[in-house]
Amino acid sequence: MARKVIIDCDPGIDDAIALTMALFDPRLEVLAVTATAGTVDADQATTNVQGLIQQLDPPKYPRIGIASPCEGASVINDIVLHGADGLAGCNYQPSDRQHRHLSEKIISELLRQHPNQVSLICLGPLTNVARAFQREPGLESLVDRLVISGGAVACPGNISPVAEMNMYFDPVAARSVIESATTKSLLPLDVTDQVEFSIELIENLPSKQTRAGQLLHQLLLCAFRSYVQNLGRETIPLYDPVALLGFLEPELFTWEDMAVDVETRGELTRGQTVSDRRQHREWSFNAEVARTIDATAAVNQVVRGLRFAGQCT
Question: By the 8 A CB rule, do 126 and 11 touch?
Fold first, then answer.
């Protein structure tokens, strides 16, 4: 039986690639894709989610959640790596949102409709999940699993020396969700950055004649070009597809129960993922954290998922 999921994301090239995998994976029933601000602003995130789903045209359309601005969010500009629209110049046009609902409302409705059956796969900042939990106390007890792409436990950050982008963007929300009474799996940069994709990935993509292939070629060619030009790096990470594997293929990872928190106010440490690893630990375990990954197997699984999406489109 397919597992019910909500995908919360801020597309973003790697979000779009993870979404392409998830929408056609027979192991998943994607009930909703909820947009959140992060890589792009709230309006652009919503436009990107709508555009991606329309272009991919999956056999079953998920509900779409509208992102709303996040007060106190950090100003982040990822245009250099993702393109002006966040999606390598796909330039989707806004569609009618008259009958759409806010992301946090859709999350709440679906968790109550399917108690203990829906997992949240969070690929962007945790703004929507925090809002849903705050507006309905006790809602977190209805979540099956909460999978979080983000954090940097024992490695440098990717947006500051110590912070990963999703935690940095809205650290108050991140802290609130991390502290919630849910079963959480954290996929930090420590493992997602271990999986490197070479330009050979382009050769293994679906044909450009398919809907998925057309999208993937545009996104990934842009990603490889941007990483070479701006970072001098010939391989690219795909954080969110690897995080999705944490839900689909958990045996590819080693996991460790950890006590983690997120810094919300530090002038230099905003969004830092802090773990209590002292010998005489005072904090309680509150998440299972991915610590290592079979990188070769992960690359193969991502390619397999993308090729299957091509077969379906």
Answer: no
CB atoms within 10 A of CB 276: 15
Beta pairing, strands 118-122 & 101-102: unpaired
> Domain 3-312 has what CATH class?
alpha beta
DSSP 272: B
Count of CB atoms within 10 A of residue 252's CB?
Answer: 21
For position 75, what pLDDT does the model report? 64
| CA pair distance 134, 126, nearest whole angstrom | 12
| Arithmetic mean of pLDDT, 38-47 | 95
Contact 259, 285 (CB under 8 A): yes
Q: Under the phi-then-psi rule, with left for phi > 0, alpha for psi from -120 to 50, and beta for the rest, what region is 91?
A: left
CA separation for the pair 208, 205 (Å, rounded): 8
Q: CA 42 to CA 63: how far, in whole Å?
A: 17
Question: How many H-runs (helices) and E-runs (strands) does the chain carry?
Answer: 12, 11
pLDDT band (50, 70, 90) for residue 78? low
Report residue 298: phi and psi, to 5°.
-65, -45
d(CA 283, CA 277): 9
What would the two tokens of residue 111 be? 């968790």
For the entire predicted model, the pTM comes to 0.96
Q: Of 103, 256, 99, 262, which Cα lies nearest the Cα of 180? A: 262
List the chain domain ranges. 3-312
pLDDT digits (tens, 9 = 90+) for 83-99: 889 999 999 998 876 67
